[in-house]
């Protein structure tokens, strides 16, 4: 494994890890705030729930993009990382 290959592997790991960590923190915070909002105003639960589901889907898309970037970094240079 060359030095460049090691940097590619580290970059791929960082891309996947940071995307997953950011999405998880965002999802946790959004869910906590939604539960707090529902507890304060139960009659708006359906509106809050719909907005929460859309926001969670967008956050999950960011995590998937991070996975895609990491995997592409490894697959673009298939011989460099063993």
What structural keywords apply?
F1FO ATP Synthase, mainly alpha, elongated, 0% strand, 82 residues
Q: What does this entry show, briefly?
A:
With 82 residues, the chain is an all-alpha fold. The chain contains 2 helices and no strands. The N and C termini lie close together (7 Å).
CATH-defined architecture: Up-down Bundle
Low-confidence stretches: none
Shape: elongated
CATH topology: F1FO ATP Synthase
Q: Roughly how many Å apart are the termini? A: 7 Å
Order of secondary-structure elements: HH
Structural class: mainly alpha
Radius of gyration from CA coordinates: 18 Å
Total DSSP E strands: 0
User: What is the CATH level 1 assignment?
Assistant: Mainly Alpha
Characterization of this structure:
- It is a single chain.
- This protein has one domain: F1FO ATP Synthase.
- The protein has 2 helices and no strands.
- 85% of the residues lie in helices and 0% in strands.
- The relative contact order is 0.22.
- With 82 residues, it is mainly alpha-helical.
């Amino acid at each position: 494994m060359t030095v460049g290959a090691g940097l590619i592997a580290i970059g791929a790991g960082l891309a996947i890890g940071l995307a997953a960590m950011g999405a998880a923190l965002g999802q946790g915070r959004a869910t906590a705030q939604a539960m707090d909002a529902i507890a304060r105003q139960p009659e708006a639960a359906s509106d809050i729930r719909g907005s929460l589901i859309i926001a969670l889907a967008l956050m999950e898309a960011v995590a998937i993009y991070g996975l895609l970037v990491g995997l592409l970094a490894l697959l673009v240079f298939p011989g460099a990382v063993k």
